Amino acid sequence: MSDTWELYYWPGMPGRGEFMRLLFIETSTPFKDVYAGEDWTAVGKVNYQLSKEFFALPTIKHNGFMLSQTPVICRYLAVKLNNGVLYPKEELLGYQAEMIMAGIVDLTAEGHDAWHPIDKNATYVSQKEQAKPFIEYYEKKRLPKWFSFFEKVLAENEKKYPSFDEGGPFLVGESISYVDLCMFHILDGIEFQCPEAYAFIDVPKLKNLKTRIQNRPKIKQYLESAQRSRFTGTGPIF
């Protein structure tokens, strides 16, 4: 068994694996990005084997324990890394964080499906024309609805915790948690993929949160490094 944290995810894109990477980076936790630099086709052959140990990528492995499913992994890492510094200490705040994480995962899935409306396992390029109305609906209807909800969450949390040291409220409680880092990733991906739609939606607290997270020293250094994969233009976060 290896004491090294291992992340298994598709190479060459941030994707859902980036949620985990950001948690490792913020907590200064060494990890191995197992498939980094590997051939996509070879990784695909492993991912689609019915006999594999995990259901789907991303997957993490540590001391022989393997775990799949994005929200479960993120909660687990928040609890385990650096003495749980990224997981809320109060029970009810923990549940609230999990609710927000579920929303982030839903928004991620909606984006993926908008860019892959015909076949979720096929490439975006192969269904680019068919995807256009779905992408338009996502940008005009779904993004404003989700962004407004997250903006309200920040506003309500600011009322409960009015004194902040970092220029604005977090999503849960008075300090950064794993959902703030995960929120940054989905916002960063949406801004890249849908710049006009992102700019049009008036959510100052949410956009301020994104700016604050991306300027955190460890995150900023990572984002500017060669370690960070660039977005591919095939859907938000991908």
Topology:
Layout: E1 5-8, H1 17-26, E2 31-33, H2 40-47, E3 59-62, E4 65-68, H3 70-80, H4 91-115, H5 128-160, H6 178-193, H7 195-200, H8 204-214, H9 217-223
Parallel strand pairs: 1-2
Antiparallel strand pairs: 1-3, 3-4
Helix pairs in contact: 1-3, 1-6, 4-5, 4-6, 6-8
Our Rg estimate from Cα atoms comes to 18 Å
End-to-end Cα distance, whole Å, is: 31 Å
Shape: globular
Briefly note the structural class of the backbone: alpha+beta
**Low-confidence stretches at least 5 residues in length (pLDDT < 50)?**
none
Total strands: the figure is 4
Q: How are strands sequenced across the largest beta sheet?
A: 2-1-3-4
Q: How much is the average pLDDT?
A: 94
Strand residue percentage: 5-15%
Main beta sheet: 4 strands, mixed
Summarize this structure briefly.
The chain is an alpha+beta fold and about 240 residues long. The chain has nine helices and four strands.
Question: What do these coordinates show?
Answer:
The protein is 53% helix and 6% strand. It contains nine helices and four strands, in the order βαβαββααααααα. It has helices at residues 17-26, 40-47, 70-80, 91-115, 128-160, 178-193, 195-200, 204-214, 217-223; strands at 5-8, 31-33, 59-62, 65-68. β3 and β4 (65-68) form a beta hairpin. It starts with a strand and ends in a 15-residue tail after the last helix.
